[in-house]
Amino acid sequence: MSRVGKVPIAIPSGVEVVIEGQRISVQGSKGRLERELRPEVRLEREDNLLKVTPVDESGFARAQWGLSRTLVANMVQGVSQGFKKDLELAGVGYRAAKQGNKLVLTVGFSHPVEVEAPEGIEFVVANPTHLSVNGYDRELVGEIAAKIRGVRPPEPYKGKGIHYAGERIRRKVGKTGKK
Question: Domain range holding 149?
Fold first, then answer.
């Protein structure tokens, strides 16, 4: 039995949920999200609660049960509160700047790297070495943050690069000096 799938999802005030067969649409103050759920699970609404149940007791249906519940819970949380990923830049001269809807990264290349913000994503540059990716779609926020990190991933010798806030970079010992 799925422990995650059993937990009902509370619908906060200001969030509108529409269920049409296997399609769920969630709208809140931050935005609107839609998703088609697998036919192995059933979604039901009871007052201000959403419940996900498996259609049968097959292994695949039980596997989709917890996943579907988490995806719906992320949709509800995203349109009401939103999601945020913090990134840090480490290195001499490494910096980030926001120009309109774009994020401009100067990270040791011969040219600045520009990252365009898709719809529903906002970049916040607190200072030149700290930035955050904000949005209401958890999947998209994580994808864009990973794309930014992938521009210059942290290297293990000096720790230079772009990394998530709080991420521990595994360091290696460099070459030994001449004796």
Answer: 83-164
